[in-house]
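ok so I'm stuck.
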Amino acid sequence: MVAAPEIVELPRRRSPLRAALVAMRPRQWSKNLLVFAGLVFAAKLGEPLRWLEACVCFVAYCAISSAAYLANDVRDRHDDRLHPVKRSRPIARGELSPRSALTLATVLAVAAPLLLAPLGIGSVLLVLAFAALQAGYTLRLKHVVLLDVLTISALFVVRAAAGAEAVDVRISPWLLLCTALLALFLALAKRRGELVLVGAGRTPGRPVLDGYSLELVDQLTGIVASGTVIAYAVYTLTAGHSRALLATVPFVVFGVFRYLLLIHRYDIGEEPEQVLLKDVPILLAVAGWIVTAAAILALT
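replied:
not stuck anymore, here's the structure
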Protein backbone atom coordinates (compact mmCIF):
# COMPACT_ATOMS: atom_id res chain seq x y z
CA MET A 1 0.00 0.00 0.00
CA VAL A 2 1.44 3.35 -1.03
CA ALA A 3 1.60 5.94 1.74
CA ALA A 4 -0.14 9.23 1.12
CA PRO A 5 2.21 12.15 0.39
CA GLU A 6 2.95 14.45 3.30
CA ILE A 7 1.00 17.70 3.17
CA VAL A 8 2.86 20.70 4.55
CA GLU A 9 1.11 24.00 5.17
CA LEU A 10 3.30 26.90 4.04
CA PRO A 11 3.15 30.34 5.67
CA ARG A 12 0.83 32.99 4.25
CA ARG A 13 2.07 34.57 1.03
CA ARG A 14 4.23 37.65 1.65
CA SER A 15 4.00 41.03 -0.06
CA PRO A 16 6.67 41.78 -2.72
CA LEU A 17 8.45 44.25 -0.41
CA ARG A 18 8.52 41.86 2.52
CA ALA A 19 9.51 39.00 0.23
CA ALA A 20 12.46 41.05 -1.06
CA LEU A 21 13.56 41.83 2.51
CA VAL A 22 13.31 38.19 3.60
CA ALA A 23 15.21 37.07 0.48
CA MET A 24 18.05 39.39 1.47
CA ARG A 25 18.35 37.25 4.64
CA PRO A 26 18.78 39.96 7.27
CA ARG A 27 19.36 37.28 9.93
CA GLN A 28 22.59 36.44 8.15
CA TRP A 29 23.84 40.02 8.55
CA SER A 30 25.01 39.09 12.04
CA LYS A 31 28.01 37.45 10.31
CA ASN A 32 29.11 40.89 9.15
CA LEU A 33 29.52 42.10 12.74
CA LEU A 34 32.97 40.59 12.33
CA VAL A 35 34.04 43.80 10.58
CA PHE A 36 34.07 45.45 14.02
CA ALA A 37 36.69 42.99 15.34
CA GLY A 38 39.66 45.07 14.21
CA LEU A 39 38.29 48.20 15.88
CA VAL A 40 37.49 46.40 19.13
CA PHE A 41 40.75 44.48 19.48
CA ALA A 42 42.82 47.50 18.51
CA ALA A 43 41.21 49.22 21.53
CA LYS A 44 40.07 52.22 19.47
CA LEU A 45 36.62 52.29 21.04
CA GLY A 46 36.69 55.98 21.92
CA GLU A 47 37.13 57.28 18.37
CA PRO A 48 33.76 58.22 16.76
CA LEU A 49 35.18 58.58 13.24
CA ARG A 50 36.48 55.02 13.27
CA TRP A 51 33.12 53.79 14.50
CA LEU A 52 31.48 55.58 11.56
CA GLU A 53 33.94 53.96 9.14
CA ALA A 54 33.27 50.53 10.67
CA CYS A 55 29.51 51.06 10.39
CA VAL A 56 29.84 51.99 6.72
CA CYS A 57 31.86 48.82 6.19
CA PHE A 58 29.18 46.79 7.96
CA VAL A 59 26.43 48.19 5.73
CA ALA A 60 28.51 47.53 2.59
CA TYR A 61 29.12 43.89 3.53
CA CYS A 62 25.45 43.40 4.36
CA ALA A 63 24.65 44.69 0.87
CA ILE A 64 27.17 42.50 -0.94
CA SER A 65 26.19 39.45 1.15
CA SER A 66 22.51 39.95 0.34
CA ALA A 67 23.33 40.30 -3.36
CA ALA A 68 25.04 36.90 -3.22
CA TYR A 69 22.11 35.31 -1.34
CA LEU A 70 19.65 36.61 -3.96
CA ALA A 71 21.74 35.30 -6.86
CA ASN A 72 22.23 31.97 -5.10
CA ASP A 73 18.49 31.56 -4.45
CA VAL A 74 17.67 32.31 -8.07
CA ARG A 75 20.12 29.67 -9.21
CA ASP A 76 18.92 27.05 -6.69
CA ARG A 77 15.20 27.83 -6.69
CA HIS A 78 14.18 24.49 -8.23
CA ASP A 79 16.20 22.43 -5.74
CA ASP A 80 15.05 24.63 -2.85
CA ARG A 81 11.42 23.70 -3.53
CA LEU A 82 12.26 20.11 -2.55
CA HIS A 83 13.97 21.09 0.72
CA PRO A 84 11.98 21.09 4.00
CA VAL A 85 13.43 24.44 5.12
CA LYS A 86 14.57 26.20 1.96
CA ARG A 87 11.22 25.75 0.18
CA SER A 88 9.86 28.64 2.26
CA ARG A 89 12.34 31.08 0.71
CA PRO A 90 10.58 33.85 -1.27
CA ILE A 91 12.11 33.01 -4.65
CA ALA A 92 11.43 29.28 -4.30
CA ARG A 93 7.81 30.06 -3.35
CA GLY A 94 7.35 32.43 -6.27
CA GLU A 95 6.82 35.48 -4.06
CA LEU A 96 9.79 37.23 -5.67
CA SER A 97 10.46 36.75 -9.37
CA PRO A 98 13.99 35.78 -10.49
CA ARG A 99 14.18 38.96 -12.59
CA SER A 100 13.30 41.20 -9.64
CA ALA A 101 15.74 39.32 -7.41
CA LEU A 102 18.61 39.71 -9.88
CA THR A 103 17.83 43.42 -10.35
CA LEU A 104 17.94 43.95 -6.59
CA ALA A 105 21.16 41.92 -6.37
CA THR A 106 22.79 44.11 -9.02
CA VAL A 107 21.84 47.30 -7.19
CA LEU A 108 23.25 45.98 -3.91
CA ALA A 109 26.45 44.70 -5.57
CA VAL A 110 27.11 48.11 -7.13
CA ALA A 111 26.28 49.98 -3.93
CA ALA A 112 28.79 48.08 -1.77
CA PRO A 113 32.06 49.28 -3.41
CA LEU A 114 30.63 52.78 -3.83
CA LEU A 115 30.02 52.97 -0.09
CA LEU A 116 33.58 51.84 0.63
CA ALA A 117 35.29 54.09 -1.94
CA PRO A 118 35.81 56.96 0.56
CA LEU A 119 37.64 54.51 2.87
CA GLY A 120 40.40 53.82 0.35
CA ILE A 121 41.35 51.48 -2.45
CA GLY A 122 42.20 48.69 0.00
CA SER A 123 38.62 48.54 1.22
CA VAL A 124 37.29 48.49 -2.34
CA LEU A 125 39.65 45.69 -3.39
CA LEU A 126 38.68 43.59 -0.38
CA VAL A 127 34.94 43.90 -1.08
CA LEU A 128 35.57 43.00 -4.73
CA ALA A 129 37.55 39.95 -3.58
CA PHE A 130 34.65 39.07 -1.28
CA ALA A 131 32.20 39.38 -4.20
CA ALA A 132 34.44 37.21 -6.40
CA LEU A 133 34.63 34.51 -3.72
CA GLN A 134 30.85 34.62 -3.26
CA ALA A 135 30.33 34.31 -7.00
CA GLY A 136 32.80 31.44 -7.21
CA TYR A 137 31.01 29.70 -4.35
CA THR A 138 27.58 30.13 -5.94
CA LEU A 139 28.64 29.05 -9.42
CA ARG A 140 31.03 26.21 -8.69
CA LEU A 141 32.89 25.93 -5.38
CA LYS A 142 29.88 24.92 -3.27
CA HIS A 143 29.77 21.74 -5.35
CA VAL A 144 33.42 20.80 -4.67
CA VAL A 145 34.15 18.72 -1.56
CA LEU A 146 36.29 20.55 1.04
CA LEU A 147 36.64 23.65 -1.15
CA ASP A 148 33.04 24.49 -0.29
CA VAL A 149 33.71 24.81 3.45
CA LEU A 150 37.15 26.37 2.91
CA THR A 151 35.56 29.10 0.77
CA ILE A 152 33.07 29.88 3.52
CA SER A 153 35.98 30.17 5.94
CA ALA A 154 37.84 32.51 3.57
CA LEU A 155 34.80 34.78 3.34
CA PHE A 156 34.89 35.29 7.11
CA VAL A 157 38.60 36.11 7.00
CA VAL A 158 37.94 38.75 4.33
CA ARG A 159 35.25 40.27 6.55
CA ALA A 160 37.67 40.56 9.49
CA ALA A 161 40.47 41.95 7.32
CA ALA A 162 38.07 44.41 5.67
CA GLY A 163 36.96 45.77 9.03
CA ALA A 164 40.55 46.40 10.07
CA GLU A 165 41.36 48.02 6.71
CA ALA A 166 38.32 50.28 6.90
CA VAL A 167 39.40 51.80 10.22
CA ASP A 168 43.12 51.65 9.42
CA VAL A 169 44.26 49.39 12.27
CA ARG A 170 46.45 46.29 12.38
CA ILE A 171 44.76 42.97 13.10
CA SER A 172 46.65 40.04 14.61
CA PRO A 173 47.36 37.12 12.22
CA TRP A 174 46.42 34.81 15.09
CA LEU A 175 43.00 36.46 15.30
CA LEU A 176 42.54 35.98 11.55
CA LEU A 177 43.51 32.31 11.94
CA CYS A 178 41.05 31.92 14.79
CA THR A 179 38.34 33.51 12.62
CA ALA A 180 39.12 31.12 9.76
CA LEU A 181 39.00 28.05 12.00
CA LEU A 182 35.79 29.07 13.76
CA ALA A 183 34.08 29.69 10.42
CA LEU A 184 35.34 26.33 9.15
CA PHE A 185 33.98 24.68 12.30
CA LEU A 186 30.50 26.14 11.69
CA ALA A 187 30.59 25.25 7.98
CA LEU A 188 31.45 21.62 8.77
CA ALA A 189 28.67 21.52 11.36
CA LYS A 190 26.29 22.76 8.68
CA ARG A 191 27.36 19.96 6.35
CA ARG A 192 26.77 17.51 9.18
CA GLY A 193 23.24 18.82 9.64
CA GLU A 194 22.57 18.37 5.94
CA LEU A 195 23.89 14.81 6.04
CA VAL A 196 21.57 13.99 8.93
CA LEU A 197 18.56 15.30 7.00
CA VAL A 198 19.54 13.30 3.92
CA GLY A 199 20.04 10.15 6.00
CA ALA A 200 16.60 10.59 7.54
CA GLY A 201 15.07 10.92 4.07
CA ARG A 202 13.74 14.40 4.85
CA THR A 203 15.50 16.08 1.94
CA PRO A 204 17.25 15.09 -1.30
CA GLY A 205 21.01 15.29 -1.03
CA ARG A 206 23.08 17.83 -2.91
CA PRO A 207 25.86 16.32 -5.06
CA VAL A 208 28.62 17.72 -2.84
CA LEU A 209 27.30 15.70 0.11
CA ASP A 210 28.27 12.49 -1.69
CA GLY A 211 31.88 13.35 -0.90
CA TYR A 212 31.22 13.60 2.83
CA SER A 213 30.20 11.14 5.52
CA LEU A 214 29.19 11.63 9.14
CA GLU A 215 32.40 9.93 10.27
CA LEU A 216 34.60 12.18 8.15
CA VAL A 217 32.77 15.37 9.12
CA ASP A 218 32.90 14.45 12.82
CA GLN A 219 36.67 13.90 12.62
CA LEU A 220 37.23 17.16 10.76
CA THR A 221 34.97 19.06 13.14
CA GLY A 222 36.89 17.76 16.17
CA ILE A 223 40.23 18.75 14.65
CA VAL A 224 39.04 22.23 13.69
CA ALA A 225 37.37 22.78 17.09
CA SER A 226 40.66 22.01 18.84
CA GLY A 227 42.55 24.28 16.46
CA THR A 228 40.10 27.12 17.10
CA VAL A 229 40.63 27.01 20.85
CA ILE A 230 44.42 26.74 20.50
CA ALA A 231 44.61 29.62 18.00
CA TYR A 232 42.53 31.86 20.24
CA ALA A 233 44.63 30.98 23.30
CA VAL A 234 47.82 31.85 21.40
CA TYR A 235 46.23 35.12 20.30
CA THR A 236 45.48 36.11 23.88
CA LEU A 237 49.10 35.38 24.86
CA THR A 238 50.55 37.37 21.95
CA ALA A 239 48.10 40.30 21.98
CA GLY A 240 49.78 43.63 22.49
CA HIS A 241 47.28 44.84 25.09
CA SER A 242 47.42 42.40 27.98
CA ARG A 243 47.82 38.72 28.60
CA ALA A 244 44.82 39.10 30.86
CA LEU A 245 42.78 38.33 27.73
CA LEU A 246 43.63 34.73 28.56
CA ALA A 247 40.70 35.00 30.99
CA THR A 248 38.32 35.01 28.01
CA VAL A 249 39.47 31.59 26.78
CA PRO A 250 37.02 29.61 29.01
CA PHE A 251 34.09 31.36 27.30
CA VAL A 252 35.40 30.27 23.89
CA VAL A 253 36.00 26.71 25.09
CA PHE A 254 32.48 26.48 26.53
CA GLY A 255 30.90 27.92 23.37
CA VAL A 256 32.70 25.44 21.11
CA PHE A 257 31.95 22.50 23.40
CA ARG A 258 28.31 23.53 23.73
CA TYR A 259 27.94 23.69 19.95
CA LEU A 260 29.51 20.24 19.59
CA LEU A 261 27.04 18.93 22.16
CA LEU A 262 24.09 20.38 20.27
CA ILE A 263 25.07 19.04 16.86
CA HIS A 264 25.70 15.53 18.21
CA ARG A 265 22.84 15.21 20.68
CA TYR A 266 20.14 16.98 18.68
CA ASP A 267 21.53 16.66 15.12
CA ILE A 268 21.22 20.38 14.51
CA GLY A 269 23.66 22.67 12.78
CA GLU A 270 22.22 23.09 9.29
CA GLU A 271 21.22 26.63 10.26
CA PRO A 272 24.15 27.85 12.42
CA GLU A 273 22.75 31.36 12.83
CA GLN A 274 19.58 29.91 14.40
CA VAL A 275 21.60 27.93 16.95
CA LEU A 276 23.88 30.85 17.79
CA LEU A 277 21.01 33.29 18.20
CA LYS A 278 18.59 31.05 20.12
CA ASP A 279 20.62 28.79 22.42
CA VAL A 280 20.67 30.47 25.84
CA PRO A 281 23.92 28.90 27.17
CA ILE A 282 25.78 29.98 24.02
CA LEU A 283 24.30 33.47 24.25
CA LEU A 284 25.41 33.70 27.89
CA ALA A 285 28.91 32.56 26.92
CA VAL A 286 29.07 35.21 24.20
CA ALA A 287 27.82 37.86 26.63
CA GLY A 288 30.39 36.79 29.22
CA TRP A 289 33.14 36.93 26.62
CA ILE A 290 32.09 40.42 25.49
CA VAL A 291 31.91 41.83 29.03
CA THR A 292 35.23 40.27 30.11
CA ALA A 293 37.10 41.28 26.97
CA ALA A 294 35.68 44.80 27.07
CA ALA A 295 36.69 45.23 30.70
CA ILE A 296 40.23 43.99 30.05
CA LEU A 297 40.68 46.18 26.96
CA ALA A 298 39.29 49.20 28.78
CA LEU A 299 41.57 48.75 31.79
CA THR A 300 44.72 48.00 29.79
